[in-house]
Amino acid sequence: MIVGSLRRGSFARKIAQNVLPMFPEGYEARIVEIRDLPLYDFDYDDPEVTDKPVPAEYTAFRETIRSSAGVLFVTPENNRTIPACLKNAVDIGSKPNSDVSWKGLPVGIISHSVGRMGGYSSQKNLRLALSYFDMPTVGQPEAFLPQSPELFAGGDTIVRESTVEFLREYVDRFTRVIQEGGTQAGRGGRGVPR
Length: 194
What we know:
This protein is of the alpha/beta class. The protein contains 6 helices and 4 strands, in the order E-H-H-E-H-E-H-E-H-H. Strands 1-2-3-4 form a 4-stranded parallel sheet, with helices on both faces.
């Protein structure tokens, strides 16, 4: 899972932490941190540039994504789009061109906002950013969580049972995409849960 917020107490992180235990037995779900990824700079991946080695954080992130069975994004909406930290992570995983980490990787997206739109714009922008990588995805219904502060009633646990059930169903559908997507070309059979 990738959380599109750096704030420790963010609603996106709380949502992700509530979703983690919803994965079925046999899946090792965890949050992959993006906090310490340096800003993307193509000089790192340009073979013509020899004095700027690829940061170790890039290599570790790319290897983690590449070895995953699927990725579930949980993101807020910032200024009608995805947070800069999340776009940075997408860009880092998109290089080098010869070995794109996202290629063919099953993907799910849960977006939220404190308003009534549930992060609609962020989810659509993230889908657009990922669309080039031929990633099998969860279809309908999409997961938009509006008025996210109300989900928690001041705590860390989602208190609305209908939302909990919806998220369980979303995770179930996502794991089905992983099972089906792992056999598609480009993933090398990595879609098998661990």
